[in-house]
Amino acid sequence: MTQVTQTALEIINARVPGYKDLQMLLVNQEGIIEQILPMSKVGVETHSGATLLDVVGDWISLGGVDLQINGALGLAFTDLRTENAHLLEKITQFLWDVGVDGFLPTLVTTSIENIQRSLAVIANFTALSLDKHGLRGSSCAKILGVHLEGPFLNFQKRGAHPPEYLLPLTIDQVKRVLGDYAHIVKVITLAPELDPIGEVIPYLRSLGITVSLGHSEATDIQAQRAFKLGATMVTHAFNAMPPLHHRQPGLLGAAITHPDVMCGFIADGQHVSPTMLQILLRASYQEKGLFLVSDALAPLGLPDGVYPWDSRQIEVKNGTARLPDGTLSGTTLPLLVGVQNLVKWGICDVESAIFLVTKAPRQAIGLPGIVKVQTTANLLRWHWDKQTRELSWHRL
Asked: Who's near 8: CB < 8 A, 6+ residues apart?
């Protein structure tokens, strides 16, 4: 509801994450939330001229935010260039249609030339999009910045990242990669053990870039040191890092016990076992310490099959992408499928699962994350069917 509506909308009997009991939401003609009141304080008459929508106990939330998405509709963000930049418009519309309000295009490890070319295209697109749509924009997902996943990763934990483009973690190398585009980089994933001096994380924080630890063999001591230096996130918990061990807690153990660190995780049932996700949620600070990501690759929105991936190929089966040698490289499942999975598997209640894809990722990058007065009503309606145990959603 980012465009001017014909009439105001009064939503009643809504469950809203972060609010107790059923609520009434009044959305004005400009698509702005004017009121949120408990139903116990709402009169019997509707607001003058407002269309009444009774959601009979369904959940109302903001759309999702995806902090790690590598591409969609056949385009990898590392393959961006002037001649295919128009595809970004289609991707932002597609992501909106699958429930995403905002996202960080994620650039995986590649050459510095490719990184800078992609950053230039994204910077130009976001500037043109702001001029075209203004701050509120139209019905499309907003680019909130860029996530650089690499190239400062541990060779032993590189996963599907091409080893020939990995770089040492120094301030000089970081400056080479960022070039003139540090202002649009929101998050960078790195392996902290590659910088024993400890100078890079404070430098990145001075630029306003959130530092996420990942593709790393860091011990818990090395991770704690990185957190003290300013790292506040962990990239795809469990994946590309040492497993939890009762005598060697490692990076993940340090992260989930730290009150100021947030871990992204993938809930496709392939990257991490549902049982381990249940352990993760029970051990962490719940919504405060975790958020969902898709880690979706370029074939997101396309059918299963074989697709190009940098100079290699990936095969997508049932939404899971692997290299020819079987290495897990990502998913092609939309972000909100993770919410549905968590509820279906009995790991989360509906409100907690919604928080993990709406409030938590926004919180991780310093954005407000709950439905509140005077915000744009980009709203999702969630319906939980107790009989089928299915969670469905659609945009209002």
From this structure: 26, 27, 28, 29, 34, 47, 49, 50, 51
Residues 116-131 pLDDT 10s: 999 999 999 998 875 4
Q: State pLDDT tens for residues 159-197.
A: 889 999 999 999 999 999 999 999 999 999 999 999 999
Please tell me which residue in 101, 220, 268, 295 is annotated as part of the active site: 295
Q: Are residues 142 and 53 in the same domain?
A: no
Radius of gyration of the chain (CA): 21
The pLDDT tens digits of the residues spanning 310-328 come to: 778 889 998 898 888 888 8
Q: How many domains does the chain have?
A: 2
**Is 295 known to be catalytic?**
yes
Instruction: Of 295, 213, 220, 309, give the one whose Cα is nearest residue 257.
Output: 220
Identify whether residues 272 and 201 lie together within a single domain. yes
CA 387, CA 378: separation in Å to the nearest integer? 29
**Same domain (yes/no): 294, 211:** yes
Residues 217 and 304 in one domain: yes
What single string gives the DSSP state of each residue in 332-374?
Answer: ---HHHHHHHHHHTTSS-HHHHHHHHTHHHHHHTT---S--TT
Q: Where residue 14 sits, what CATH number does that domain have?
A: 2.30.40.10
On whether both 359 and 382 belong to a single domain, the answer is no
